[in-house]
Amino acid sequence: MHDLDNELLVFRNRLYDVEITPPENSWELIRHTLDTPHLAAPKSFGIKKGLRIAAAAALIGICFFAANYFIAGSDQSKTTGQKTLPANKTGEQPDIPSVAGSTEDAGITAPESNKPMIASQTTTRKNKTQPHTPLNDFYREAATFNAPPVSSIPYDNTAITDRYDLDHAAAKRIRNLKGEVKEDVRLMDLPNSYFLMTGPNGQSVRVSSKFRNTIQYLNGSGKEELLDVILRESQYWRNQFKAWKEEVGHSTFIPSAENFMDISELMKLLQQHNNK
Amino acid sequence: MQEYLYQRFSPKMYAVCLRYAGKAEDAQDILQDGFVKIFKNLHMYRGDGSFEGWIRRIFVNTAIEHYRRQVNLYPVTENHENLLETKELSALDSLSMKDLMKMIQELSPGYRTVFNLYVVEGYSHKEIAEIVGISEGTSKSQLARAKGVLQNMIKTKRTLS
């Protein structure tokens, strides 16, 4: 209890213990309120009800998003499985009907793909101007499972599909004749010199096109020309750095910490010391 | 039991309600809510302090809850506060309890709440700030303004008489 001015003390002394009789019906109203519980605490009940509704809504939301997440995940895995599955149930290559004109494999049937792949549509669109030949049909994505049996395919044709040749029509194929998923950089390419690749955990990664050759080579393409490109590039930069180094070495700058030439001097000294 | 408690404490608590309420109808509402709370939470009284003090605190809190939305609290500068320190309140002795009660009821809800809590109940500005949800400075300024308004009321009454 704090000290009060005398004037304020008058208020406290005269008002603190004042008794005023309440209206006559007050007790009746209180008793009525107590007898009817929903009137007794309507506010607290409302808050509880609101909290329950909020909790239920939150739970439904969480369940929805969780279910959505898992469903999306399982769909993705299914799609990946379908795309990478090269063989039928017996582990063999999918049965393939014969090419037009061939009579050897006439009796062989193949599973038909109901949903054409996006890449196949792209291929068709891009190849609009090309003449319609049996060979082009052979390389079309829609005919992936309608291709002739591997045994009947000459080695050269397979090699063509494996070749990293952007200008060749066969480069648009996603699968080669063995049913393997092939890389097509043009399909992967994004504007602004980037391309998309799939990481080890299935995540999509955007990579600069500068690393295209290196990644393709490391990815097991095994194409010598890719290695050549990488080596050429590295050789180019090696020569470039050498040229810059020589240029700096022959410059008229006085070695100092300001122009970092002292580092060059130090390196020379260290080399001389090692030679001795 | 409940009726006994009502009969025993209702006159004092109704006076408390009247001090915090602007109108008799509001005071009756607060009285009703307060007693319902007390009867429902009687088991929570631990016997630490006086039973009347416990009941009074419940009524004060109920009254504050009742008027929380109506309270408009405006800060006042130090100059105003100093100006209100005049000793005009000495004429209070000549006023009846009914007059004092009426004067308090005529204050705005914000002034009335802070004035009742500080002057009659004896809470500090820090405690008032926590109870009402305002800053300590606002509580002080509200009290100063309340005193100024009461001072004017007393002047008016003296002039009339």
Question: What is the end-to-end distance of chain B?
Answer: 47 Å
* Fourth-tier CATH superfamily name of the largest domain in chain B: Winged helix-like DNA-binding domain superfamily/Winged helix DNA-binding domain
Compute the CA-based radius of gyration of chain B: 17 Å
Please provide the count of β strands of chain B.
0
In whole angstroms, the N-to-C terminal distance of chain A is 93 Å
Percent helix among the residues of chain A?
40-55%
Strand content of chain B: under 5%
Strand neighbour order, sheet with most strands of chain A: 1-2-3
Describe the model:
The complex is a heterodimer of chains A (276) and B (161). Chain A has helices at residues 6-15, 26-35, 37-40, 42-84, 118-126, 134-139, 155-162, 185-188, 212-221, 224-249, 261-275; strands at residues 189-190, 194-198, 204-208. Chain A is mostly helical and 276 residues long. Among the domains of chain A are: 52-84; 89-182, no CATH class; 234-275, no CATH class. Chain A has a three-stranded antiparallel beta sheet. In chain A, helix 9 crosses helix 10 (224-249). The radius of gyration of chain A is 40 Å and the shape is elongated. The N and C termini of chain A lie far apart (93 Å). Chain B is an all-alpha fold and 161 residues long. Chain B has eight helices and no strands. In chain B, helix 1 packs across helix 2. The model of chain B is unreliable at 73-87 (pLDDT under 50). At the A-B interface, helix 1 and helix 2 of A face helix 1, helix 2, helix 5 and helix 6 of B.
